[in-house]
Amino acid sequence: MYDLKFVRTHPEELREAIRKKGEGADLDKVLALDERRRALLVDVETLKAERNARSQEIGKAKTTGADASEAIVAMRTVSQRIKDLDAELSANQQEIDEHLQWVPNIPHPSVPEGGESANVHLRSWGERRKAEGLKDHVELCRDLGLMDLAAASRMSGAGFACFTGMGAKLERALINFMLDLQTAAGYTEVRIPYATRAGALFGCGQLPKLREDMYALPHDELYLIPTAEVPLTNLYQGSSLREEDLPINLTAYSPCFRREAGAYGKQTHGLIRLHQFDKVEMVKLVTPETSYDELERLTADAEAVLQKLELPYRVMLLATGDLSFAAAKTYDLELWAPGEDRWLEVSSCSDFEDFQARRIGLRYRASDGKLRTVHTLNGSGVALPRLTVALLEHHQTERGSVRIPPVLRPYLGGVEELTAP
Questions:
Q1: Across residues 379-401, what is the average pLDDT?
Q2: pTM score, two decimals?
Q3: Which of 51, 54, 258, 358 is catalytic?
Q4: What is the pLDDT at residue 59?
Q5: What's the DSSP call for residue 117?
Q6: 258 is catalytic
Q7: DSSP 295-334
Q8: C or N: which end of the chain has fewer Cβ atoms within 10 Å?
């Protein structure tokens, strides 16, 4: 969250960020409240000086035996006025904070302006299969006994999946494969809690904007996590790291819980959009100087998952209107799903610069001895439902089986194909 000094000195830059991201933050209200706050501070300091003077006057009167009643009444009046102004200052600061929490991160200058249609295709990898004659993942899962969507729906309602047999084993294999891949690339694996306090979600920019998408546990004042990004980023909340400790690279598997409150009208076929899904996440804590080089490395680490699984994908640079509230720059990785005949986003690799670190109080001691704010990055490495969709549809054979990429076979006991039970 931006502090008032930054807001006062960069109002136009922040107004542009609000406009480009299509957010509703009221910066003019913040500036007006800040002006009132500064006037109140001047009044309080003036009154405190007067109170001190009255106190000295009363002290002298008592020493000499003079009548101090008028001075006492005057000091009480001044003290009450200070109390009233302090209460107004507190209310003013609370209102400022309520408005500031809706001010989004400023997009990086390299990010194109516009909505989804302005996203830029940067590169592609692999050869797409044509949709003709191919089954979609729901048909494949049914024929191969990999999933029971009907049972999941009976238990939990729409938006949940139940993998069975080799389907469940495939999910576990993909999770272990991705964790092994990222730890081999230098990430430290963390086993995280799957519920978190509101402050951690606020720190990552998930709250208050995405409150309606959260699964809340109000009795315990907790939320189920929407992504492992939240606990991973907050692992060092309120800390002061050393420059030599950076970069810190973290990875974790977690289930993710999202109500998808804004998903009405979007395609929800099969595994395309779920309320609970599995994901391996990567988080980087870095110095500002290395921030955007680390974004490229992070993206390459996510791409490595898709390349090793022999799945065609493309990399998209998101435009300002498609960026998240907290991101300064994002690359989306989209897999080609031939049975769906469309691209499916499986990873967003984002640089938040110091936006999240400001909110969670995460700093580092630079080599010059000064405390500076860490830059945070995160990316999925990757989300499983759509990865499973693309893997099944892309690697299906004419016999109706699904070929397992060689890199995944050791995690499935050497199985080379998924076949009907």
A1: 96
A2: 0.92
A3: 258
A4: 84
A5: G
A6: yes
A7: HHHHHHHHHHHHHHTT--EEEEEPPGGGS-SS-SEEEEEE
A8: C
